[in-house]
Amino acid sequence: MHYIRQILLIALGLLAAGCAAGPEDGSADSAGDSAAWAYGRWDVEVQHPQGSYPSWFEITAGEDGPSGRFVGRFGSARPIQQLEVGEQQLRFSLPVQWESHSSDMVFEGRPEDGKIIGETNAADGSMVPFRAVPAPELDRPGPVSFAEEPIDLLAQGLEGWTLRVEDGPDGWSFEDGVLSNQPPSVDLITRREFGDFKLQVEFWMPPGSNSGVYLRGQYEVQIQDDHGKEPDSHRCGGLYGFITPSEMACRPPQEWNRYEITLVGRTVTVVCNGVTIIEDEEIPGITGGALSSAEDGRGPIMLQGDHEAIRYRNLLVWPAQEEGQPAADEEEQ
Questions:
Q1: For residue 82, what are the β-bridge partners?
Q2: How far is CA 319 from CA 87, 261, 276, in A?
């Protein structure tokens, strides 16, 4: 009898310890958590009457309650300041970064069929609808191989490119294999779209320059005159606002630099001038200035052109092998 009692006491002790430890992954136990429906990363489309635009936010659990971060139409990821999540209601606000709002940005939404539907205040003070869907994982089932021969994005000069704004200012020109931009101008986009790929891009910056290359039109690798500065996610070589490079490998202005970038799913590697500065890092979500928030498809290469002067050359793409053939509509052009 004494032996059985000891076994029962040991079993109860182990059960109590297991309950105290919580889930094996260390995440908050969502049982009974009224905010659990909002946890995760969300790809957002703000449906403004003058044209929809993308945003992104992430809500996570914590000991002190839910917290979050946000990426708007412009700028970079920043913390959500005020966040309230109930069983059927989400509300958060944060100060503007590069937006032209006269007050804090506010989002209010509710769950609906696995999405979040709601409203946000526009720059003019009006309320406009938004729709958020869960961001895809973008995991790949196995290793990805790439085409043996690259696609030369400048083989036909500017013919394979289009302006982001059709009637916007155009400071782009092409001569002797070099693509140059002199503002005022707008971003330049490849007509062709890609999924997973390797990209080589060489760039030349005048003093004070600021540009960037967007992968799938969504994730910006920063290009900026930052030689000699400490590495930062907002500086040269960073995945803008999200991933800080291991070191500052960009050369001084008026020297040619080279990026070799590999994008598989949402995992990125960046080599700058022969130095691996980002290696197999996960990109949490879109960066400011993205073309779209839909992360589950293909997208173009976009060169930022609305900041300062910049030059590019030797833009080569090795698509994932299964994407090596052009789309049918491109073959007909």
A1: 93
A2: 44, 12, 20
Q: What is the pTM of this model?
A: 0.87
pLDDT at 186 over 60: yes
Q: Are 121 and 101 in contact (CB under 8 A)?
A: yes
Listed in sequence order, the residues at least 6 apart from 315 whose beta carbon sits closer than 8 Å to its beta carbon are 152, 153, 154, 179, 199, 200, 201, 202, 301
Distant-in-sequence, close-in-space partners of 50: CB < 8 Å, separation ≥ 6: none
From start to end of 230-274, where are the E strands?
256-264, 267-272
CA distance 149 to 311: 24
Yes or no: say if 42 and 249 are a contact pair by the CB < 8 Å rule. no
Of 97 and 156, more confident: 156
Structure tokens at 279: 């290696």
Helix, strand, or coil (residue 182): coil
Rounded Cα gap, residues 102 and 183, in angstroms: 28
Sheet holding 210-215, edge to edge: 161-163, 188-190, 302-303, 210-215, 219-224
Single-letter amino acid code for the residue at 23: P
H or E element, residue 331: helix 328-332
Mention every residue, 6+ apart, whose C-beta is less than 8 A from residue 110: 88, 89, 90, 116, 117, 118
> Do 212 and 223 form a contact (C-beta atoms < 8 A)?
yes
Structure tokens at 34: 């009224």
pLDDT digits (tens, 9 = 90+) for 154-179: 999 999 999 999 999 999 999 999 99
What does DSSP say about strands 82-85 and 267-272: parallel, antiparallel, or unpaired?
unpaired
Angstrom CA distances, 172 to 85, 268, 305, stand at: 46, 28, 8
Separation between Cα atoms, residue 259 and residue 275, nearest integer Å? 9
